[in-house]
Design brief:
Bound molecules: 2-acetamido-2-deoxy-beta-D-glucopyranose
Strand content: 5-15%
Number of strands: 22
Structural class: mainly alpha
Length: 607
């Protein structure tokens, strides 16, 4: 099946292959690269030494040059670093000078040339500076020339400035009490570690970049460069680390053009790969980054369906960036495998066994936890690959029909449309909706933007109203983690919340949908709603040293703060709010980027 898949895949490229070959862009660089790559390692070393000697000679005779040499760090700080100070409201990172002396050349035999890896992202790279002109040398090794960063203008209005102020407040507390740890506990002024990968710094990298916060980006980059090590003897969750860490490293690479991020991504991606060594190819949920041993979760023999199907954007991008197909191949195979499994009208149970490759029958069907992003990545993978992999779109379309038919109901009183869950293999309907499921209207709108039926937009608009009500009906104006809907005719009240479900974790899904809906429809109501929610976060979750999850959205005088600021608050929630309030709704264009499940933008390719 995989062979068949790949064959289709390559064939689909062929019409475009000539276009790239004829592109005149990057030709001078190409021949230089080719010349360079044809040198032996010894010849390259000679060139390095001569270049270094020449540079040192020049530096030595330059007036005032001695300050440039920093004996303490043993590093030659290039003059480029001083360019970190940029004029206000523009954001530009210089190309990083690559320190090739201490970098091993990748083994050439690891890089198998494949036509699809010589593809450029669809965007015209004129202003975006993405890796549009990757070139291939005689042995098929791919090189992206050094790249310039994408420019963002910084805040353009008061709402955006308010979001930046919130970000800086959170960042300050994190820096003071939790720097280098995964999460800030803002009330006790301590920290929480989950994978010990500095999650908050890594997740926030591209948010910082998009906000144009030069100083913060420099310190975060420095930490990633010097202190983010993946050689840690600890089990991590494949899905979480892929969407939060791998995704952010890749998007930071694409936005800033700084190859250090890609090098880190390659190291991490390589350590995650053993997850795929199961009998079925469906990945194990956990892996030890140091021993590289993968296994199922401790509490169950099964992996979550959404987890094994929400790693493909990142692994594919890693392959496209490096020219090494093994990442994309492993992850794409999982999607194809799940495609081949029997489903009920496109809907999937939430557990899948890595050894047998089968769904656990009778497990719940939901667009909330453990199901949600399976549907999201069907659409987004289709977009990422230039709408060339038909089965992804078809499965998405079928699933949305299944959702409309089997999962949607209306409340008795005000006829709000919501998405419920099917239990026991589809026998019982439960009128329960996770806040997580509020990502769906944004994803539906993204599909319509890419040519899917207008009918999906009607569903999206209705779900937006329901999700908005989840916020608006609470006295704190913050939605609970889970809402139950009232479908009994003759009763009053549309929704209710159980005590155990009344928490708000600063989650992004609804503001994510607001941003998509605003960008695609231009309807300012969505900005207005976002502003109301932002103010509720300010009022009920802001504490002296950051922002905290709360335990009870139903009681404004006792919100039961939980003393936890998860990395997605900086990585996603504040990013989407900042983008939502932009005067230019297309500041991060949906035709150039596809955002992963953790709001990290990755380039759209044309195949
Ligand atoms: C904008 O969206 C709101 C909420 O769905 C809706 O009530 C309103 O009619 C929309 N406005 C326009 C101009 O479409």
């Amino acid at each position: 099946m995989l062979g068949q898949f790949k064959k289709d895949y390559v064939a689909l490229n062929l019409p475009n292959a000539g276009v790239d070959a004829n592109s005149s862009r990057g030709w001078p660089k190409k021949s230089l690269w080719r010349w360079w790559n044809q040198l032996s390692r010894f010849q390259r070393s000679v060139v390095y030494v001569l270049t270094l000697a020449a540079c040192l000679t020049v530096l030595y005779f330059l007036p005032g040059a001695h300050a440039i040499w920093n004996p303490g760090s043993g590093k030659l700080n290039t003059a480029l670093d001083s360019n970190y100070i940029t004029p206000p409201l523009t954001f530009f990172f210089p190309k990083k000078a690559e320190n090739s002396l201490d970098k091993e050349e990748p083994a050439e035999e690891n890089y198998v040339h494949e036509e699809i890896y010589n593809k450029k992202p669809v965007q015209d790279t004129g202003d975006m500076g993405l890796n549009g002109n990757a070139v291939t040398n005689a042995v098929g090794q791919i090189h992206s020339p050094p790249r310039e960063g994408v420019k963002f203008s910084g805040p353009t209005n008061e709402r955006q400035s308010a979001v930046i102020a919130a970000f800086k407040h959170a960042w300050k507390g994190y820096k003071k009490y939790a720097w280098g740890h995964d999460h800030l506990k803002p009330i006790t002024g301590t920290f929480h570690d989950w994978f010990s990968l500095g999650l908050t710094i890594v997740d926030a990298l591209d948010t910082i970049y998009i906000m144009g916060l030069t100083e913060e980006f420099a310190e975060a980059r420095e930490w990633v460069d010097t202190s983010l090590h993946f050689d840690v003897n600890r089990d991590v969750n494949l899905f979480e680390v892929t969407i939060r860490v791998l995704g952010s490293l890749l998007s930071s690479y694409h936005l800033s053009g700084d190859k250090m991020f890609l090098d880190k991504a390659v190291d991490l991606g390589t350590r995650l790969l053993p997850c795929f060594n199961s009998d079925s190819g469906v990945p194990y949920s956990d892996v030890n980054l140091a021993t590289r041993k993968a296994h199922s979760p401790k509490w169950s023999p099964d992996s979550s369906t959404s987890e094994v199907t929400t790693i493909q954007l990142e692994f594919r991008d890693l392959s496209r960036c490096t020219g090494d197909p093994k990442f994309e191949d492993s992850a794409a195979k999982v999607s194809l495998h799940v495609h081949g499994l029997e489903k009920s009208e496109g809907l999937v149970p939430i557990f899948i066994n890595a050894n047998t490759g089968h769904f656990r029958s009778y497990s719940t069907i939901t667009l909330g936890a453990r199901g949600d992003s399976y549907y999201e990545y069907l659409l987004k993978q289709w977009i990422q690959t230039g709408q060339t992999i038909d089965y992804l779109r078809d499965d998405f379309m079928e699933a949305i029909s299944g959702v409309m038919k089997h999962l949607t109901r209306r409340t008795a009183q005000n006829k709000y449309l919501f998405i419920g869950e099917l239990l026991a293999g589809g026998r019982d309907f439960k009128p329960k909706m996770d806040h997580l499921a509020c990502y769906l209207p944004g994803t539906l709108a993204l599909g319509v933007h890419n040519g899917l039926p207008q009918e999906h937009m009607l569903l999206a608009e209705e779900l937006m109203i329901t999700c908005y009500q989840m916020y608006a009906q609470q006295p704190t104006f913050l939605a609970p983690e889970i809402t139950y809907f009232n479908i009994q005719e003759g009763t009053t009240g549309d929704m209710s919340v159980k005590t155990n479900d009344a928490h708000n974790l600063l989650r992004p899904e609804f503001v994510e949908s607001l941003w998509y809906m605003y960008q695609i429809t231009g309807n300012q109501t969505y900005q207005q709603w976002g502003w109301q929610i932002f103010q509720a976060f300010e009022k009920y979750t802001k504490v002296a040293n950051g922002y905290t999850s709360i335990g009870n959205v139903r009681n404004p005088v006792n919100t039961r703060p939980r003393d936890m600021m998860e990395s997605f608050f900086l990585g996603e929630t504040l990013k989407y709010l900042y983008l939502l309030f932009s005067d230019d709704p297309h500041v991060l264009s949906l035709d150039k980027y596809v955002l992963n499940s953790e709001a990290h933008p990755l380039p759209i390719y044309d195949t």
